[in-house]
From TrEMBL:
The keyword Iron-sulfur applies. This is Glutaredoxin. Residues 1-114 form the Thioredoxin domain. It comes from the Eukaryota. It comes from Podospora pseudoanserina. Keywords: Iron, Iron-sulfur, Metal-binding.
Amino acid sequence: MSTIREITSLPNWEHHVTSLPPSTLLVVSFHAPWAAPCAQMATVLSTLASEYPVTEPPSTSWVSINAEDLSDISETYNVTAVPFLVLIRNGQVLETVSGSSAVKVRNAIEAHAAKVGAPVLNGAATATDGHEGEVATEEDPEKKKEELFKRLGDLVKAAPVMLFMKGTPSEPKCGFSRQLVAILRENAVKYGFFNILADDEVRQGLKEFADWPTYPQLWVDGKLVGGLDIVKEELSNDADFFKA
Ligand SMILES: N[C@@H](CCC(=O)N[C@@H](CS)C(=O)NCC(=O)O)C(=O)O
């Protein structure tokens, strides 16, 4: 289970890059502390990283960089907006993804990294150097809502099964979320998760987007199944609900 490491200085970055074998895919996430979509992207990336096992030599290496503090590095990679993802192997930039689309980020990483026990998408990702999903600077509330809903539309598809919960699977912060995590574990379901306590915009926005007022929320293939009660009901009607 890979984790994301924060690069804190230029020497730290140089040491990290030069210590990697040529075959390792280096996943670099540029962020800024003031940009809420970066907090969301951090969660998306740590969920993704956790799906990649730690191997020797490492098949993937995951780092994040404060784009403003380490401007020498962000300038090297032409980071003009955050979040901004750069995929590097053997010193070569393979692909960049500008913006907060969880789907584009997942596709790009899956296209370049082999996950043990998972199919590798061949050429599924395309270069995405457009400006979609960037941080809105305007205060137009309609535009902000449109952007939020676009992010949420991507986020609910960040994994085939997505759990929006309070806390994390290892540390649920609410009994309902804890119960749903236990159900998923009992049914050996692989899932991505999002801690809605870490992002109030997502917490409030998803209620409206989903037309569902509470958490946990379970989404399968980008469609809302429901909360804990609905999942329990589905399983009591069909014990193989998650196997279909
Ligand atoms: N019966 C609900 C229980 C979930 C629930 O009531 N959640 C509350 C308390 S944890 C909630 O999310 N409230 C809205 C919020 O906290 O934003 C289910 O089946 O999921």
